[in-house]
Amino acid sequence: MFREAFEAALIVGIILSYLKRTGATSQYSTVAYGTAAAIAASLVTAGAFKMLAISFEGANEEIFEGITMLVTAALLSTMIIWMIRVKPSVKQIESETSDSLTGNKWGLFFLVFISIFREGLEAVLFFSGLDISGTNAIIGSVLGLVVGVGLVYLLFRGLIRLNFKVLFNVTNTLLVLIAAGLVAHGFHELQEAGVVTFLSNVVWDINPAVNADGTYPALHDHGSIGGFLASVFGYNGNPSAIEVLSYLLYIAFIVLGAKIGKGNNKVVAA
Question: Please, which residues have CB within 8 angstroms of residue 40's CB and are 6 or more apart in sequence?
Answer without folding.
Answer: none
